[in-house]
From TrEMBL, chain A:
Comp. bias regions, Low complexity: 165-179
UniProt keyword Transmembrane, yes or no: yes
YdbS-like PH domain: residues covered: 71-151, 273-352, 421-497
The protein's name in its UniProt record: Putative membrane protein
TM stretches of this protein: 21-39, 51-69, 201-224, 244-270, 400-417
Chain segments carrying region Disordered: 160-186
UniProt keyword Transcription, yes or no: no
Keywords assigned: Membrane, Transmembrane, Transmembrane helix
Matches recorded under InterPro entries: UCP026631, YdbS-like_PH
Organism field: Edaphobacillus lindanitolerans
Annotated Pfam families: bPH_2
UniProtKB/TrEMBL annotation, chain B:
Lineage top rank: taxon: Bacteria
TM regions (residue ranges): 21-41, 47-67
InterPro entries the UniProt entry points to: YdbS-like_PH
Protein's name in the database: YdbS-like PH domain-containing protein
Alphabetized Pfam families for the sequence: bPH_2
Keywords: Membrane, Transmembrane, Transmembrane helix
YdbS-like PH domain span: 72-148
Amino acid sequence: MMSEERHRLHWITAVIELVKTLKEAILPLIVIVVANGLGREKTGNFWLDNISVFIFGLFIVFTAVAGLIKWKRFVYWFEDGELRIEHGLFVKKKRYIPFERIQSLDYTEGIFHRPFGLVKVKVETAGGSGKDQAEAELTAVTRAEADRVSREIADAKRMKRMPSAEAAETTGTEAEGVPPEVPEADGAPARTVFRMENRDIVFLSAISGRIGLIFSGMAVLMSQFSDILPYELIFDELAAFVKFGVLIIAAAVLAVLLVGWVISVVWTFLSFYGFQVAFDGDDLFISRGLLEKKRITVPLNRIQAVRMSENPFQKLFGYRSVKVHSAGGGEESGAVISLFPLVKRDRVNALLGELFPELDLDAELARTPGRSRPYFYRIDFVWMIPVIGLASWFLFPYGLLTLLIVPAVILLGMWQHRSGGWAISGRQLTVRWRGFALQTVYVFRRRIQSMEERQTVFQKRKDVATVNVSFKSGTGASVAPVRHIDRADAERLMDWYDPRDRTGREAALEKGRAVHE
Amino acid sequence: MRKEPANRISGKGLTVWRIHGVFYTLMVLVPAIAAIVLAYIFDGPVWIYIVSAAVPVLTGYLLIGLFPKIRWQRWRYEVRETEIELQHGLFIVKRTLVPMVRVQHVDTSQGPILRKYGLAGITVSTAATTHEIPALQMEEADDLRSRISGLARVAEDDV
């Protein structure tokens, strides 16, 4: 029988908890300290003068004790086919997670884990759309222990599945969007299907959008410090600075941009270092990271849709990126997961074909009709006209430059119009559209949660319509739009989705199954 | 050409929407009256009177008169054995198709105004999306809810 021995986490848990809390609290703390400590005259009272230091110290002690308690009181064990966790000092919390609800275990190795050979294990469950879903985290256990947990769960699941496979087949109403599980080829070793070269990771870092994140981070930091920065001094310096001329200012701005960019490159490089995807027939294992190693598990049957995107930079260098939409609760292996962050265009189909053999990647796309081109930019005049009007009126004559957004928007619209397309191949729908990057979504009919055909008054005049395809992504929905296509084609799409209109073999098949039940 | 869904929502739904419209109009009316009073006291320009009179009138016409009517006329639904089809929308006509196999649960809900008129709304949830039929007779809503959940339970998937 299963071991009912209570297990503890590694003591480093206490440290990790402490650091985590401190990290979250560091900015407000700094503000408190600065507000209290600086810019105030000494009262002579020792306690009053150093109050911020005491607050700070008290906070650290409190946090440290809380971390210790959390570690001390946290136990987990296996019993009756469940992972059971108990924690808490005053309020004892128990969480029992049945093995069959556990979708995957994600491993993270942070810098505190590395010296001791530990991992953080995150237990992902097939939680539907609720916040109350069972989910658990083992902050620090040894690698061997983690593997034992995963083996124990896998074994228990297999035992359970054998007799009940039939039952799963007949109750296949897809309670969570999961199809009845197919008996798997047990114990097949995971084999690496995709590995990113360092060169590609550097390129990814160079063009990734994280630079914006860094700048907003800098801005937040600046705003936090705004109280102590001597603004008058800066303005004086700035005035002197201006005299140096525009060139130097431009150089300074460039330098700041460059530094931000370098930080972002390094950051991205560190977090994507050694990116690889392994596959064992049922699950995808995605691991990455240099300082903090992460490994997430994505069960194939949780994947709702495959999304390929190509932004203009990537196109220029012959790259694409592929993400998958997965159903589920957690942030790590739920929602949108980067499968191939960057992959050569000529390799992508072969790679995807290996993971998803049933996917039709070369379907001939039907194009958006020519008469619907204006719809891609006409709506934008609603905001462009007031913006241009106001800017030109108040900022004359430079405001007139805003007129330039008109051709830009129109060109983008025409580009979007040219890029759009859709295709039905059997039970699969392919939708391609462009925001700025080109997106292609491959989704099977059974993964589509609902479809909506919509038509504005203007669209009606030219007999075009838009179809929105909703599928599950994480705990919410993601939408693939088939924009401004021929009305008849929109209806064809709806007919394809409509279960009532399934023809011939499929209908007979469904009927047969219904009778069988 | 796909046929329109067969059923309309309750006629009282139109009344409820008009009542909502009255509330919104009142919210516009109060500042408008305030503006007129202030303009009178401080001897404001004439256009303030005109705008303050025109805006509530227009709002009232649109939100009490025109919009609820169009919305109501547009609203159609049909619950068939294998799917639910909805049609609604004011400026944009939306036709939504929800297969029974995707339905996870059905709720009925009722605000104070709906209750006064013996109405209830139905919310159909899939794993990712939710869809609402806003105003049905209460018994009808209850029937429909049990019918949908019954159909959803037996619906077969095409894998």
